[in-house]
Amino acid sequence: MVSLKKNKLKTKKKKLLKPLILDKIITDEKIASKEGDYFTKKDFKHIITKDCDVYCIKNNEKVLLARFRKNVIPQNLSKIALEELEETAKKKHDNRGAAGGALDLDKLPKYVNKNSMYKRSKYVIRGYESLKTGKMVEQIIGNQVSSNIIGYYDKPDRNLGKDAPPCRLTQFNKNNMEKFKKVVPFLNAINKQFRLLIPKRYRKQRKRANKTNFVIDKTAFSTVTVNHNWRTALHKDSGDYKDGFGNLVVCTKGEYLGGYTGFPQYGVAFDVRQGDFLAMDVHEWHCNTEMKGKGNKEFSRMSVVCYLREKMLRCEGLEIEEEV
Length: 324
Hints:
- This protein is an alpha+beta fold.
- It has helices at 2-15, 28-33, 75-89, 171-175, 177-197, 199-209, and strands at 20-22, 46-48, 52-58, 61-69, 92-93, 112-118, 125-130, 136-141, 145-153, 168-169, 223-228, 246-253, 256-258, 261-263, 268-270, 277-280, 287-288, 291-293, 300-307.
- The chain starts with a helix and ends in a 17-residue tail after the last strand.
């Protein structure tokens, strides 16, 4: 009888969860001009630290921006994920575009001749002279940041030339399949929250994912991005399934301050900690605030973003069609 009362109280509590409904506080034109810029805690009126559903007003309609839930990912699975993925999350890559921030010459790869770059924009260059070969190279490069991907990727391995297959296992999976298998239960736990909290988007994404063999276990994900202590600049995600939804969790060691995941156009950010789950519209402008170790001590904050790559259907020779 006692357990039944507890269940009723839990159900009632969920029904009483009051949503946060927000209007834009920055125009579309102004926020777009800030792509690649950093934002601080002061830019966010709302810092969400407990269960909350957040909606934004677009074209006079209420649209889901994010759903945040505390302590729903098992701690033991988060610990395993950090143990198995922290090393790869620390590896630096130069292809993160605007999320890597405005170009900083000190953050470019060492083989780039900093005196011979061309087609330079705010946060990337599209060509440079290689200090290794002395030749000009056409390649998009930005600041190096600690970020990597695992799972599957919907772009060919350029090292294999023109005959490379359209999709492939990531380098991590090729070299660390046993590590990846240990992380699968953790990814399934994230998938469970996606299914429970964003059911319509989940069903659509899962249906699409099931059309290919390039899917992680029984999830709606093909790919996972892992980032280490990375303060992302303002950006929108690209390459993921546009009708899906973003799934963010973090795994941590040590104590730290900041690292809020925010949508500055709406003045709202989320304090995502280990065990928490954030479903977010990654096609809205978002970023992270600065993070630092408590008492200036060392810490690890590995953010884990799970998604379905938009072009995975091409891996099976299927046409990508607009879904209704």
